[in-house]
User: Fold these one by one.
Assistant:
Number 1:
Amino acid sequence: MNQNSNARRLWYRQPAGADWNRALPIGSGRLGAMIYGNVRQERWQLNEDSVWSGGPRQRENPDTLRLLPELRRLIGAGSLSAAHKLAADALAGVPDIMRFYEPLADATLFMEHPAATAAELAIRHPDAPNNGDAGLATPLTVAETKIAADDNVPPDYERALDLGAATVSVRYSVGGVTFIREHFASAPDEVVVSRLTASASGKISFRLRIDRGLIDNYAARYLDTISAFDDGGLLLAGQTGGAGGLGFAAAALVAVSGGAARTIGDTVIVSGADEAVIYLSGATTFRGAQPAATALQKVRAAARRGWAALAARQREDYRPLFNRVTLQLGADSDAAANRQLPTDERIERIRQGATDLDLLATYFDFGRYLLIGASRPGSLPANGQGVWNQDFTPAWGSKYTININANMNYWPAESCNLAECHEPLFDLLERMAENGRRTARVMYGCRGFVAHHNTDIWADTCPTDRNLGASYWLMGGAWLALHLWEHYAFAPADRHEFLRRAWPILREASRFFLDYLVENEHGQLIVFPSSSPENVYRLLNGEIGTLSAGTTMDSAILDLLFRRTRQTAALLDLEPEFAADVEAARQKLPPLTVGRHGRLLEWPVEYDEPEPGHRHISHLFALFPGDQISPTRTPALAAAARASLEHRLAHGGGHTGWSRAWIVNFWARLLDGDQCFAHLQALLAKSTLPNLFDDHPPFQIDGNFGATAAMAEMLLQSQETAADGEATLPVLHLLPALPAAWREGSVSGLRARGGFTVDLAWRAGALSAATLRAADGGACWVTVGAAAPRQKIELRAGESRALAL
């Protein structure tokens, strides 16, 4: 299928009204905006990635090291209540909270239109039926009533997000005049740009305000100053709370063709224009001492370039990234028919049991779109909400939760050919390693670096939030360090120097555990105390526990970390004695263990599970994203993993969006495409908001990224290796988990470990075409489906080869 810019889009017949979860996102990495598309009172909610609630701190608990032996003694003796009380005091950060991610500003447009015809006066609430009636859905909140009263929705109204172009458009007619708004976020120019046009001259009139902290859609808080600049410009400035809080600024500049723009107080008034372009930007003291000057410079430079030049620069930047991968599922005729329906109606049809393969492909593309929009070189990493957040106290602080969520954000980066979008995570990790060395030394008396279950803009590595099941988990830095190896593995010939950058982090993450690990009564090295993220167990006496002497997830992460550290040392010919120590420790880690019910154990003892349907499935890390469990290489462990997964699901597991996305990845690794498809359907039906954002609830972006990665994993896997004489080559598994429902389709541009790019097509559920490319040359094994024999493929640098099938 020809993937033109209009092939994949989200579109709706109503504005978002007052509902943020219906607004449409645009982003440039540093900047994000949610476009509501309201007709008369429009809202653009703005974010800048470095607007956080305060400055850097050193929060290490000075008493941890002194009390750690007593805490270990209490856990070992089964005195869990006493251990939990002590841990809440002795392990907690001081103070026990990290910084939060905050919004930058809101831009509100009060539009003026010609007198509407009777048909155009029909008011439609976003949840009202789409049958042309003029009734309001009831009841409405006060805020929704304000929006609805101002926002009579014309019959021809349409708003859309074009994924191929990264643009949001709004189109409607009032009084016989058609109005069009177009929006995009530009990474090259670091601005959000909106153009308003009409089918008749002199019809663009509106008032624009920028605020911060909207109350009932018109009042503002959480800012210090608003001032006018130039002709049609507003500058908002302030400082976030807390010691060392960040200074921030947001600038809006309006340029008009025809008509006039003037400023009165804190309002830009545009009258009788043929066209108006609004340039928005923001900055903080995180990147420079003068955020106001930076924001002004960005919007003024954008205005000098103008809409056409900015749009061309945005296209040249975005489209090569997005167009690297294309996915078609099902027949073109089915896709064309389904695209005639608005996106929210298509989601509702899925909830009623329909199949819409093109919507799944759109969801896949939407995940790639969000990663491009939230994580670009020079930006901060995608946080709990990517870069889009309207709340000053967002859920979980919209931080970087690194016991699964922030990690999941980057699962599609390599396989979906967006490797440069991975780079902000590496930048943060390098800062974490520096802070984590202090945390390791002060709290645990260890060398190396450590991070717990969260971090923030300042790369904080101390425990936060006093959550016994999560806060005192020590594996966050170790898990993130594995992303460095993955980045290398997908292009080893091209990234040898990157491996030198990765080496200090892998080494220091491993060094911490060489010091911290404790030998148990079986001679095994364990993390003590530890936890299996956010889950609990029950002792025979009925006592509920979170902290334990080692967990399955610990051992799986450390097995992989120690292997990658040893491999990196060998490739770089560095520190062989240290690498030998790491390997010796790896050999003493507890093995993956199967319990009496045939399930993989989550803890070292087969405890009773108070929450058998828990959202975290941490003990299956070795299945995904790890590589220690394989249906072909370790069939007994794969069977135990499957039994564990089925047990979780039988008790209500997968009830959050990100958990469901992880489950799809598990089933992909278990080579069960039909289960993958069933859980993708469940993800759309139960955990997807009207704008396709993932729903925990509330919105968390990780499920979007996890599901995108899972769909790639269903079509191509490369985590396995196999010998070729004395060499070891990656095994490219083509269509390893293809569902029966995906009878025909194609994908191009997926990446595999070893530096290969893969295009695939299939018909009647069988591979019909496959092409491999290798920019730097290389060799691999290739296998198809579940039982096909391997064939060896060798490619020269730049060679592309169609496989003989």
Note: The longest helix spans residues 291-322.
Number 2:
Amino acid sequence: MRFGNLFRLGRWAVFVPIVVGLLLPAARLAADEFRISDIRLDGLQRISAGTVFNYLPVKIGDTVAEDVTPQLIRALYQTGFFQDVRVEREGTVLVIFVQERPSIASIEITGNSEIKTEDLKRALKDIGLADGRVFDRSVLDRIEQELRRQYFALGKYGVEITSTVSPLERNRVAVKINIVEGLTARIKQINIIGNKAFTEKELAEQLQLGPTRWYSFYSKNDRYSKQKLAGDLEKLRSFYLDRGYIKFDIKSTQVSISPDKKDMYVTVVVEEGEVYTISDLKLAGDLVMPADEIFPMIRMSRDDPFSRKATTESSERISKLLGNNGYAFANVNTIPEIDDANHKVVVTFFVDPGKRVYVRRVNIKGNTKTRDEVLRREMRQMESSWFSTEAVKRSRERLQRLGYFEEVNIETPAVAGSADEMDVNVKVQEKQSGALMAGIGFSQSQGILFNTSITQNNVFGTGKRVVFAFDNSQANRNYRLAYDNPYYTVDGISRGFDLGYRKTNYGDLDVADYLTDVATAGVTFGIPITDTSRVGLGLAYQYTDFSAGDSLISKVFEEENGSKFNDFNLTLTWTNDTRDTSVFPTRGALQTFNALVTIPGSDLEYYRLTYRHRRYFPLAKDFVLMANGDVGYGAGYGNTSAMPFWNNFYAGGPRTVRGWVENTLGPRERGANDDPVGGNMRLVGNLELFAPPPIGGDFQKSLRIGAFFDIGNVWYTKSESTDIVSPIGISLSDLRYSAGVSATWLSPVGVIAVSLAYPINPKGGDDTQFFQFSLGQLF
């Protein structure tokens, strides 16, 4: 029995350690886990407890193990609010000790001039460094690196950036970033290696960057930047690709800087390759239009050197042609097939016209005052018709030329659920079309100007124009009442009425001494010829009361013709306006022709003709070249030997030839007075280069500066007047030239025009004037 009992006990002796070994880890595991009865936060200053609880991965009542501590610490560190986190356990209470990161009390940036402080602070805020935010040193380090990168891109390789973090009370810090920008590295030399077909000088002319020149203070062409260099390399590549060098390649670009970080040396290594010529031109794809209509859009010929620019422009012209015929989503791709053996290229234009698109609706928004019909009658894109890119463009231009709107935007979204329909959405921003003005101005020729006017270009939103004006100056007194309806008929024929009275003392205008009182009443009609041109016809009655002064020419005219005249004037005008806008245009032209003839039987029988052509050419970098030509001629007929001299043409001054006193060029009276009398023929030319203003903001739209060259004069062609005025006859040697700079500012008090002009060829007796300005004149 004992042996048996011992045997049974032995078996239990073996089994018990096994059971205990299995149960002890489970008991220990159960002991490590606990149910959270409370969570206590210690160390909070600015951050609320609720914010911390939102980020914690556990909550009261959860059962957790000891290994939850790393998870808690990680979650709180990731918030970025704390620089130290410690977790402890007091029984079933979870205790979290935190040390908050300091907040930013202020950020001060000093020493920066190339980058504005406002732009820097805005960028810092986007990154996370701003007043009131939690301070993170790693963010500040990244900002320093990014600032250096920005200044390096501007060519300032000597920039020094120092950041100072000063602790303040209540766990706050003040951040100060001090920037020493240093000098911009200037390009000392650009070397191009590997060029054979073109000289280094020819290639350098294609680049924006270059060594310092006399104009570098304005163009900044000698200031190195990575962006400018990348743009120049692309220009160089385009230069070769437009001349047949399809295999042209830029092998390497090396930029080195002098030890003092002031001079840059740029070396570009190129491989030109061979010239490839065009062997054939083809059209492929879905030709929805006849090929003989598409081929003229391709301005390329066989055996010409291949040109990437010419192929791109040809593709754009084909797309535009298709767009004008309803294929709004046409896509034209150029596929060159290169024959390396013979250096030939077959250029294929693959046409994918897409579906032809109709315009479902023309929607107009933003016209709170102007009636819909006023805008719709200017639209050249009609509803339910094929979409036309050109018609939409013309519609926008016509709306802009109305002068009723600050901005005109047109969008052409596709109609949802339809593959062949689109809408034309016109959005306008109206401006004040009426004005009640009382002002004062100054002109060097007329002295102080007082003006009062009530003008409404868009009466009750109908597009009709009403004007009442009163102007008074030392030389002029003018009253005018006018009315014009631009759509007297639905076809766009206009009708207007004009009543006016003008009293002028020419002796105060630096010309011959005499006075005129002129009263007029007339009616005009305008007929549209095209979208940009009109013909006008007018008939007016004019009463003139003339008083001769001390001038000889006025006394002779009064003796021959009397002093009071009743005339009926017939006028013919032609205007063609293709400018993109009427104020500070950048492209297009304005042509005007005016003919005034008094009807036979009038007291004075004469005619007066003028033609002006002003054209604007957009150049690079917002530069605009303006060329203007002005020709005028007048003469008498029937019983009147000459055009009345008060209708003479004048030259000199801000509107014709700057550098001479206004109205003083041309023939003068003989005798002691020696007053300018103008002439019956005028020839004026102006060439002016407009540049963007050197200051930004609102001045970009209201200020224009320019450099000009003026030429012109007036002549008297009536040979019988040799005893009265001199000289007589036309001589191109009498032309006067001037050059200078100008500025025009659309200021809140009126238009201010200033010019500094140098008369190039003044002659004896000329009244020159270097500085000229006017204030408050109509633009």
Note: The longest strand covers residues 533-548.
Number 3:
Amino acid sequence: MPEPATRRVTFPVGGMTCAACQSAVERSLTRTPGVREASVNLMLHSATVSFDPSVVPVEGLLDAVRDIGYEAEAPAEGDTLGAPAARAALDEVADGALWRKAAVTFVAALAAMVVGVPLMAPADPSGHGAHLVTADPFMQWVMRALGPALQAAMPWLYALPPAVITWSLTVVTAALMAWAGREFYVRAWKNLGHGTADMNSLVALGTGAAFLYSFVATVAPGLFTRAGVAPDVYYEAVLFIIALVLMGRALEARAKHQATRALGRLVALQPATARVRVGGVDEDRPLAAIVPGELVVVRPGERLAVDGVVAEGHSAVDESMLTGESVPVEKTVGDAVVGGTVNGGGMLVVRTTAVGAASVLAQIVRLMQDAQASRAPIQHLADRVAAVFVPVVAGLAVLTVAAWWIFGGEAGAVRAFANGVAVLIIACPCAMGLAVPTAVMVATGRGAESGVLIKGGEALQRTGDVTAVVFDKTGTLTMGKPTVSGVVPVASDVTDDSLVRFAAAVGAQSEHPLSAAIVVEAARRGLTLPRPSSFDSAPGLGASGVVDGVSVRMGRAAHVAPDLALPPDTAESRDTEVHVALDGRYAGVIRLHDPLRADAADAVARVVSLGLMPVLLTGDRQGPAERAARGVGITRVVAGVLPAGKTDEVARLQGEGHVVAMVGDGINDAPALAKADVGIALASGTDVAVEAADIVLMRPDIRGVARAIALSRQTMRVMRQNLFWAFVYNVIGIPVAAGLLYPWFGVLLSPVLASAAMAFSSVSVVANSLRLRRANLDG
């Protein structure tokens, strides 16, 4: 029975503010019939879902999010890079509403504190002020400290009737709750209707209860005085809490913008339109209206909008966004170009091969976006805590109120309410929810800027545990551009040219770099290559075909002539060799030399400096393998292995207790890349290798291997710090807010200070993650 089709879609999700929100959205999507996997990103405000479109449409996924009180939008049709979430995150930050609301509310809170100072009458014998405008102990202390100076500077305040001040505070607080704090209450109400709870629920419950308590104390103070409780109020505390929470969210948004900057820069590389030539006339079109095969005109200094092949013109193209090389690359007719690169001084006419979501740039963005949407395993504990955090905190707040009401003595009722609000406000699932995703996002962005594309949080975490790095030789430690160094025919009726001609005719059908080198040698000799009537490839062994009626077999000696003894000079050669047999008869050998990369020795030295064991693993013969190993400083060499043998060697290292990273670039490396704990592929390698890898080196620089490992180690250190402080903050902060230390030290926590601490906890986690942007990966 055929496998049902799976579609993957990423769409923006609005309204998420903490880990509890993220957990609720992900749970709703995962429970939707037809959904195979769902990942929700709190940083990017996005959801990435793999689903069966025959069971549930995209609209059904959006409804699953909307049904629990959050907003969801379908992916934009014109968003050809597939990064709507990144753009939504940047748009959110561009909006200064959070800062405006926070600033206005904070100024109003300061004003409320100032106008309340004249009403701080001396305490009566019961310990309560006659006209106490605030019940918050911290604010009482501040107001009493300001009293003498304020009376000297603003005597007119003391002439205002107390009722005017208290009612003014009531109206201003209610208005700002409705304007600046509207999101808290709207989302909390939606959550209540859907049986969920998040950070908005805690803030709304705390500030809402404080306002209602204060309002009753304002309009009916007798209800309190008859019960022996002072009619104290919390208006300025409500304003300070809203202002500080909004300020914290604004700082978070700013930090998120910095964290998503690398992805945003990639998105911005794609022009919105391109100049298309139709019938000799140039016209501007949006990218969505361009199809493969059309001619796109690129003027000097313009950014290429599409992937394609140069059809007319000559220019130098800056490909630094792709390769990291600052020197422009000469391009002429027949050369491939990539969208997002910058044209130099000449005009190019490019025949489109890929545009939009199919382009190289879009694939890079998609890989990076998927990586940032993924989870590191270390986050699972935070997810489990976040799922139950808000209900537990609400329960602890109720217990706090009850305990203080019963055992708090004469001032127990007032303290019960203040401490209950403090518990609700100080609890912060935001810090737990941001601890790992912020680090993953900044690290993957930092990696991309260094030419290292990490395919997710899990790969990022595993890379830090690597203890052994296995390098393939050809195309990894070497340039992957071998040249023919010698042709040795051994059959009397075979010449140098005929040996090269037959081998090149078969090799032209293969993607292997050795075959390509033989084809180049044939062209250098001016040989005409016939097309084989049949062709077959054996990865890791060689290739075969029929050329002009002659059966040609080329590749490893064991593949070509397993029963024949090779001449002594051939057996002892230090070059890479391709053996050739014609009609079942050994015909000769073509020797090739593949120079080491200029950065290979330094790359291996950096791996060793990190305390890791380098291993050279190759299908080539022992002689060339040992020569390459000596050139780069590797002592452990395993040569002459087939693709299956490479997988076995990786398994052997894992059996010795090593966490193995495999670095390769070819089809024959793909099984070992998949078997290794971490697969690292060069982007210049085959698509199969890149697909099998966890990390892709986008630049021709294998020092990226050490950079990836160093980045992972630093990222894991930051993740652990973030989680430690997020958990410790809540473990310490909640008991202190509940008044647990009061019996021994007389310490109580003001709701205002609790809100400041809550905002600081989230911002500190994001700020700590942002340090990774300056991580030294070459030290």
Note: Confidence is low (pLDDT under 50) at residues 82-94, 121-132.
